[in-house]
Structure formats: structure tokens, C-alpha cells
Amino acid sequence: MVVSAAGGVLAGIAFKQIWKRVSGEEDAPNATDRDFTWTQVIVAAAAQGAIFGAVKAATERAGAVGYRKATGDWPTKD
């Protein structure tokens, strides 16, 4: 649970930094923000989803590897 929470925080930070560098904007557009185009909204949502998915997978994998190193067993979802 702690690993998932940390992953969410890291993903949020990563997305904000990447979005700022790519777009020059401080914040990504919300779906209902009329100052952005459809393309900008959809690209922002797709990028955010990809970053969150990648960070979630990386943190879960790192947690599993750490668990295995600490216990000698691979964690299972029972």
C-alpha cells in the first residue's frame, strides 16, 4: 500500500515536470477547460495515463524485488 501511494506521488510529480517542459504550460488542461483544444486535452490525458501506468509498474516491480530480497519469496496476490 505504501509503495502504491509513493508511486502515485512520483507519477504526479513526473507528469507535471514533463508536461511543463513539453508544453511550456504550468498545468495540464482539464477536460472541461475551454481554453484548450480537443487535441491538447486528449494528448495531456494520454500522456498522464502512460506516465502513471509506467510509474505504477516500476514501483510495484521494485517493491516485489525488495520483498524477495528481504524474504527470499516472491510476493503473491492471494
From TrEMBL:
<protein>
    <submittedName>
        <fullName>Membrane protein</fullName>
    </submittedName>
</protein>
<dbReference type="Pfam" id="PF14019">
    <property type="entry name" value="DUF4235"/>
</dbReference>
<dbReference type="InterPro" id="IPR025329">
    <property type="entry name" value="DUF4235"/>
</dbReference>
